[in-house]
EEF1A lysine methyltransferase 1 (Seriola lalandi dorsalis), 217 residues
Amino acid sequence: MSDSDDDVPTLSAHTLAALQEFYKETSTGPAHSTTPSDQFAVGAVEEDWRMSQFWYSDETATQLAEEVIREAGEGGRIACVSAPSVYQKLKQGVVDGSDRVSAVVLEYDRRFAAYGDDFIFYDYNEPLSFPANVAPQSFDIVLADPPYLSEECLSKVAKTIKHLSKGKVLLCTGAIMEKLATELLDVKKCSFLPKHNRNLSNEFRCFVNYPSRLLSC
């Protein structure tokens, strides 16, 4: 192969301009933005199907955020277990009352460590493995979305939920998990239908163990 520059292909002026425009748009996209609303936008961290990540639609994330704010109460603490879309919506500052609660996100995906002290590394295979500063029954409500539709996964996540929650549980999972969810967490299926940005082959539902607006909405 020649070391000469004579054989190096060159881009046309039009192609070069288009490429520069692409890089400009990429560098100013949500993933690179420093504004708080963009930093916490649902989808600011891209889904990774290898980790069974499927983000909620913006409307669903908003409705679930409103629900946990309402149930946590003034000064309440909210744990989002494998549910980063709801955590992000809570932190955007666009949902009424979000400034009166605090929230953390428990995630296996370390990309969410960008959220600082709000991020707690979580592996459902070690359901009770938490830092010392995460006390038992220290959250007013726990919202959980187990990454896999399996008995093993839900059973382990249920242990996490019981460890963290003072009582209230909002579970989002496949409809096929209803019987096990009821046995493990004494929850009831809601009329509310959660939606994702991508259409999933499995029907998804929400379950709660307290009187909720989601039961009849």
